[in-house]
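Any chance you'd type out a single protein's sequence alongside its tokenized fold?
>
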Amino acid sequence: MFKLLLAEDEPALRMLVSDSLEDEGYEIDAACDGEEAIGMIKRGSYDLLILDYMMPKLSGLDVIVQARALPGGERFKILMLSAKNQLTDRERTAAAGADEFMAKPFSPMALVDKVKEMLHA
């Protein structure tokens, strides 16, 4: 079973994404801000991080940079979710170390499909 960390500050979206992925058999831990996400990454072992671009305390970009700098930080895949969908935002995300970018709004099934694609490639 794959273990995922979802960092999303919007409670309704966090619940929707968590429920959709759990229904597919993924184990989900959820953080409500970037600082909490970094603490969980340091304590846990994840196959995929799903990060919101704009979060309190630490942005998704900050989380990527800090997570990639940790010992073993190359072991997990990273999917950035963002309402910021400009080319520069996508470029910043890739430069920080994300594997994929998904623009909001998105359908839960599109997210599930992207996660499957990333983990089963």
